[in-house]
Design brief:
This protein is an alpha/beta fold. The chain contains nine helices and ten strands.
Length: 298
């Protein structure tokens, strides 16, 4: 009988670019879990807790027995791996190096608040042990939007975290939520999100479209005036955001399932091409290559 090497608590989430990675949970759920736009970790079985060190190390050992050196990428799940102490993360990364010698990249989600008690030297130690990429859900660079959705972060705290990661040599993949400010705050959401990215200069930038499969009641509790943008409105907000970006060399994607229009390029060399594609879709949305609603995976 084959023994499954890792215990998963459904549902399991990972970034699109981690499709071929070994998903290794080191925590369950999210330690903050108060963002009113997020439904990922609201299920009762997803209540936050760190996994025991013994369980994680045993999972790595079993993966070695089952996969040998066939694992090239590891994603540390759930939504909050970086909340673990540096000592705990060092132990996990050392075990990956020892038992999964084929691994070339370790990555994780990262809340900006997780880094407040970690020094740049500690982060450099993690980078030297293989943690090379983190996904930071900035969501917005606008403090009013962040407050309305109970993100628990600000422009300043997100900037600080992104700069600390850069100093440590850990690549950053930043996520911005198109439409998060609703109709009323759309412009300032776009402008200040672009300003945050211009300061941080992340290696990767992705936009997702805010969506509420379970309804909008949770969001409206602290943001009663929120009204969703139309597809055209979302593209117009994106056009403002893109036009304000001054990035030197950032890989940009809008290929998450939530997006209506897929854009791919490197900012800044492809900025004008991407704007042309976006403006063409705004001018003639009926002829644009928009993703059909049924294919958005929501």
């Amino acid at each position: 009988m084959t023994i499954v090497p890792i215990r998963y608590v459904e549902p399991v989430y990972r970034p699109p670019s981690e499709a071929d990675s070994l998903i290794l949970p080191v925590t369950d759920g999210c330690s903050w879990n108060r963002c009113t736009f997020c439904e990922m970790y609201t299920a009762p079985q997803k209540r936050f807790r760190p996994r025991s060190e013994e369980e994680v190390l045993e999972s790595i050992r079993r993966c070695h027995e089952q996969f040998g050196d066939g694992v090239e990428r590891v994603f540390l799940a759930d939504g909050d791996a970086m909340t673990l102490s540096t000592r705990r993360l060092v132990t996990v990364l050392e075990a990956i190096q020892r038992d999964l010698p084929g691994v070339r990249r370790v990555s994780s989600y990262c809340l900006p608040r997780n880094l407040r008690k970690k020094s740049a030297a500690e982060l450099r130690e993690l980078a030297e042990l293989g943690l090379s990429l983190v996904y930071v859900g900035a969501e917005s660079g606008d403090d009013e939007v962040l407050s309305r959705v109970n993100k628990g972060e600000t422009f300043a705290t997100t900037r600080e975290a992104l700069e600390k990661l850069q100093e440590a040599g850990i690549k950053r993949s930043v996520m911005i939520l198109n439409g998060l400010g609703g109709q009323a705050l759309s412009q300032q959401h776009a402008l200040n999100s672009a300003a945050l990215m211009n300061v941080a200069q992340p290696e990767y930038l992705a936009t997702l479209v805010v969506s509420f499969p379970k309804g909008e009641a949770r969001l409206r509790g602290n943001f009663p005036s929120w009204e969703p943008l139309s597809v055209l409105g979302l593209m117009q907000e994106m056009e403002l955001f893109l036009s304000e970006l001054e990035l030197k060399r950032t890989i940009f994607r809008t290929d998450h399932a939530s997006n209506w229009l897929i854009l791919k390029g490197t900012l800044g060399v492809d900025k004008m091409r991407l704007l042309q594609e976006l403006r063409a879709a705004i001018a003639a949305p009926e002829a644009a290559p928009l993703r059909p609603a049924w294919a958005r995976g929501l």
